[in-house]
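hey so i finally got around to running the thing on that chain from the lab meeting. sorry it took forever, my laptop kept dying and i had to restart like 3 times. anyway pasting the input first so we r on the same page abt which one it is
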Amino acid sequence: MQTIFTIRRLFSDFSLINTFISQDFVDRYDLFVVGKRLDENRGVYQYYVKSRKAEDYKQMLIDSLYHPPYINVNLSKTGENNLYLTHVFEGKQLYKPYINDTLIGLEYLWGGQVQLETTDIRLDKSDPESRGFIFDKVLYTSKNRKVTKAKL
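ok and heres what got predicted. didnt touch it at all, straight out
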């Protein structure tokens, strides 16, 4: 039991996954990634073994980890009265209920306009069969405590 606490103290979630999840580990413990598809004839979802590869299993674990968004200050677009932030999109959009209040707070601290470039995800309604997604680049702007959003 002490070993588990030692490992937890020495490794972050990410480094633990990358250090210990190998193909041998996945094979030894019979681990796999599960897929889900709709069986339209029976009206139910079917679950199946999507992959038994260690890399796919690692990616599934990493995707499930919480991590704060990675946001950079774009120095070429930032000036005395404008703070321009760029969200590095990693497949997960920002939590929309927090965007407006966060930008207004940053505008107050910065003392000028704040802009945030990010990516929004929406369902592709033009082809309902594909169940695909559309990724839109958008720009949020907070000026005079009002937040607007524009497509880029």
